[in-house]
Design brief:
Structural class: alpha+beta
Strand content: 15-25%
Helix content: 25-40%
CATH topology of one domain: D-Amino Acid Oxidase, Chain A, domain 2
CATH class of one domain: Alpha Beta
CATH architecture of one domain: 2-Layer Sandwich
Radius of gyration: 21 Å
Length: 425
């Protein structure tokens, strides 16, 4: 068996793994402190490749809002800084609350006040303003929205590939198609991993394997309150829209910035409307310019089927869900009434009981860092997670996220409650 040494091994080639590898590689000497990312399949082959990759900052928890704010700045500026396109599209995001649920309106109002206090560009909009932002929308006069003009989304697969490329350019190593078969353990310390290609020893082993985290860590008796579900998602064709003068002006400004640096960039189809998080009807929707389609998903996962084996996921989407998705979308946005269905898919969410991720060093095992359980909102936070984990590895003060908020041992000694179904709001 061949033997290799690294400063850090990152297991998992989704958005978390590559964001961590990128931030680590930027800090490391590739000769004396190599960073090695190991992925058993292909980049973005799991949850990340199925993600809607929506970039919103609307959260109830300050800890998440700040991370989403910082991560959005990374995504929005990446092409200008690196010349690499990740399909970023600034469409704006509206979180919508209807008049029938005043408690939801109050929640949105509180969230906006908190988000503005931490420097997020967002503001409350009434029904008339919502109709100006989305002329075709059907809403009641008492509706309220939170509008983030800077939000939008990215191409999830391309983003993962670009982050991995940036990690390699900084000296990181990516080993794709290589399965981690076991952890190498000495006493209470994880000192590396065994793979089909040999053993890799490292000072730190970072597990960012999403749905595969629980069975992988079970090998060393590390029991985590993680579960995996398969949310159904449906797609409709993008409506044709005329761009507004404001969006044309913004596009020209962005083009001029990129052109000034001689950077080629992709022109995506205009978005028919902002991303909508519909708290009244219980769905979200995003125009995905990179894929030429509009995605529709549920705002919660309380009724999603659990996945016992992520390697054997049931890819079927029920006709009942397809009918529901089309009905809810067209009731809110009639412009989709005559648009074609263009496919369906299931996603993969790794859940915790409180819908917040596990990030950090478990007390039970030294040399191990867990990064899992993002409960459907990992893409929004990945750059902040990458920065914070790199700070943790290098013994720096962790400023990119709140360590206590995400502590992987916070459920220790408690019964593993079922996930709430909350979608991070």
């Amino acid at each position: 068996m061949s033997l290799r040494r690294a400063q850090t091994v990152v297991v998992g080639g989704g958005v978390m793994g590559v964001a961590i590898a990128w931030h680590l590689a930027r800090r490391a000497n590739p000769i004396t402190e190599p960073v090695v990312l190991i992925e058993k399949s292909a980049l973005a082959a799991g949850s990340s490749g199925r993600s809607g990759a929506i970039l919103r900052q609307h959260y109830s928890d300050r800890e998440l809002a700040v991370m989403a704010r910082d991560s959005l700045r990374v995504y929005a500026g990446l092409e200008a800084r690196t010349g690499r396109s990740i399909g970023f599209q600034r469409t704006g995001v509206i979180t919508l609350a209807g008049p029938e649920r005043p408690e939801t309106i109050a929640l949105v109002q509180r969230n906006v006040a908190m988000q503005r206090s931490v420097g997020i560009t967002t503001h409350l909009v009434d029904a008339a303003e919502i109709r100006e932002l989305v002329p075709d929308i059907v809403i009641a006069d008492g509706a309220v929205g939170a509008y983030e003009p800077d939000g939008g989304g990215v191409d999830p697969v391309r983003t993962v590939e670009v982050f991995a490329t940036l990690a390699r350019e900084a000296g990181g190593i990516t080993r794709l198609g290589v399965k981690v078969e076991a952890f190498v353990v000495e006493g209470d310390r994880v000192i590396g991993v065994d793979t089909a290609e040999g053993r890799v020893l490292a000072r730190d082993v970072i597990v960012a394997t999403g749905p595969w985290t629980k069975p992988l860590l079970a090998q060393i008796g590390c029991d985590l309150p993680l579960s995996v579900v398969r949310p159904e998602q449906h797609f409709l064709a993008l409506p044709r829209v005329a761009t507004s003068a404001a969006s044309d002006a913004r596009a020209r400004l962005e083009d001029s910035v990129l052109d000034r640096f001689g950077l080629a960039h992709e022109v995506l189809p205009p978005s028919a409307h902002p991303v909508i998080l519909d708290l009244e009807r219980g769905f979200y929707t995003r125009c995905e310019g990179h894929a030429g389609r509009t995605r529709v998903g549920r705002m919660d996962y309380a009724h999603d089927d659990e996945v016992p084996d992520p390697d054997a996921i049931d890819e079927r989407v029920s006709s009942a869900y397809v009918e529901w998705a089309r009905r809810e979308l067209t009731a809110r946005l009639p412009v989709y009434t005559d648009e074609d269905d263009v496919g369906s898919q299931v996603g993969l969410y790794t859940l915790t009981p409180d819908a917040q991720a596990l990030i950090g060093r478990p007390r039970q095992w030294r040399g191990l860092i867990l990064v899992s359980g993002f409960s459907g909102h990992g893409f929004k936070l990945a750059p902040s997670v990458g920065e914070g984990v790199a700070q943790l590895v290098h013994g720096e003060p962790v400023t990119a996220f709140d360590e206590a908020f995400f502590a992987p041992d916070r459920f220790a000694g408690r019964a593993h409650a079922a996930p709430t179904g909350a979608f991070g709001l």
